[in-house]
Amino acid sequence: MSRHRIFSLAGLLASLAIGQAQAACTYPKDIRLPTGQRATESEMQAARLSVEVYLSKMEDYLACLDAETAALGAAVTPAQRDAHLARHQDTIETMERIAAGYNREVRAFKLAAARAVTPAPAPGS
What we know:
The chain has 125 residues and is mainly α.
């Protein structure tokens, strides 16, 4: 084989490997959180587990993005690096939004539960 063909074949194999790495980075499906004011305790427990699994999948996604960029090595272009950083930052922001949303709903759930057990003042008191 000529030297040019060998380099072309090596380039093709490298681009296929990068394409597979990109395909392997699957963004997790969004989750829905229950409304804390109306949720049952079991719904809130299920939401906690769902959030934990979701955040774990998002961490796996971040690791995949990092591996994808590392696979490019010195050949990474500024545009590829910028795209990686943007996807990474968007993922972190989504994780923070989900965690904050869950915490907000937990507070609403606890407040609603506290109101439900607090007796109303007696008439004429």
